[in-house]
Amino acid sequence: MPDVVVGTHDGFHVLGRELPRQPAGHRMNAVAQTPGGFWAISDYESIWHHPAGGEGGVVAKLGDGRANCLLPASGGVLVGASEANLYRLAAGELQQVGSFDEVPDRDRWYTPWGGPPDVRSMAQGPDGTIYVNVHVGGVVRSTDGGATWADTMDIDADVHEVTADPARPGHAYAASARGLGVTTDGAHSWRFDTGGLHASYCRAVALSDATLFLSASSGSGGRRAALYRRPIGADGDFERCTAGLPEWFSTNLDTFCVAAAGSFVVAGDADGTVYASHDDGVTWEAAATGLPGVTCVSIAG
């Protein structure tokens, strides 16, 4: 089994290793593995780097606001934050990406509860295109390393996670309140699919080599939450993942809580269970139980 880093409400855990949870007492908000190790955010402020085979630690802190997500991109590590701010890690400091403040219609971004919007998730395609999910503000795209940005969809689509296909330039996917958003032209246009889903409210999306995985529930409270699969590039109905999984998850399978690599897939829930599949989501087993609530998962590629 490849290394699986599981972020929880009390540090992170590496599946299959008898390691103490670290950093103990800290909520992990996001984690991303790279060939050189993995990056993480704790307590919405601290940026961690754990190099492969070495000791990790905090490399930067966000002074104001909340750090929500990170993306080890070709131009450096990007950090998405509250009030729809975007930062780039450079020389141990988080420097605000000023161009992101110039996104057209930025003043229309919002949250359903009346607070300021967040940068919630990010992805980069194989052609270098960066996709930034604003909650609520749709998906914003940059094709020049973050120098300029463009809106790409109706902001009211209420996107919760965006991911890019690492093998197909221009192909990206968004888990939204309208179902799965799909683009095949670099986010110049989107369509939304709900076929086979019991409900359209989607929180997490992930890609294996051949299959797309999508979580769906009846709403933001996570009522009747389930996980679905569909071949990448297919237009048919989604198939619900059942063998070895609960009939219904008690809460949403949230943003960052589903990950895949090759034909290996993991999903972590708020009850502290991590489910794993070695056959592209056909069958599942509990790989870890009794953890603090799972907040994010990442698989070594």
Question: Could you describe the 3D structure shown?
Answer:
- This protein is about 0% helix and about 45% strand.
- It has about 300 residues and is an all-beta fold.
- The strands form 7 sheets. A 4-stranded antiparallel β-sheet has the order 3-4-5-6, with no helix packed on it. Strands 7-8-9-10 form a 4-stranded antiparallel β-sheet, with no helix packed on it. A 4-stranded antiparallel β-sheet has the order 11-12-13-14, with no helix packed on it.
- It starts with a strand and ends with a strand.
- The model has no long low-confidence stretch (mean pLDDT about 95).
Structural class designation: mainly beta
- Count of beta strands: 27
Radius of gyration: 18 Å
Beta-strand percentage range: over 45%
Strands of the largest sheet, in order across it?
A: 3-4-5-6
Low-confidence segments, given as residue ranges, are none
- The level of helicity is under 10%
Instruction: State the distance separating the first and last CA atoms.
Output: 11 Å
How is the main sheet built?
4 strands, antiparallel
**Which outline best applies?**
globular
Number of helices: 0
Helix/strand order: EEEEEEEEEEEEEEEEEEEEEEEEEEE
Mean pLDDT over the residues: 94
Structural descriptors:
301 residues; mainly beta; four-stranded antiparallel sheet; 27 strands
